[in-house]
Amino acid sequence: MASGNAGGREYSLVELFAMKFVLADVLIIALLLLAGPIYAILATAVIVLGGLLLWYLAEGGGDEPAVSESSASAAESDAAAAETDPVTTLQERYAAGELSDAEFEAKLDRLLEADERAADADVETADLSLERER
To answer: How far is CA 106 from CA 72, 97, 101, in A?
Structure first.
């Protein structure tokens, strides 16, 4: 939700709400003076509903995380992907001494072959495991 001007400044959620409602007050007063109370009431209802929608989306009701969490969420998802990546898991096990050189190479070859077969078949490989299920 962060908006930036030409300088690239990001606004906090509180600043966005403050700007929205200051501009809304100006619009409502102008409508009240120029168009009449019915239009001012309708504009107020639309602005309140817009504020509620903005609040809902900022609280995580939408598909995207809130602005302040977006960079942190991206870093966490990258870290989680690295932790669950089968090659990374295999390297960690090898580094910890759980696998011999031959076991490491055999498992890595099998993993690479499985990845190539999956790519040829247009299958997502994110859920592949290192170990065969028995």
So the answer is: 36, 15, 9
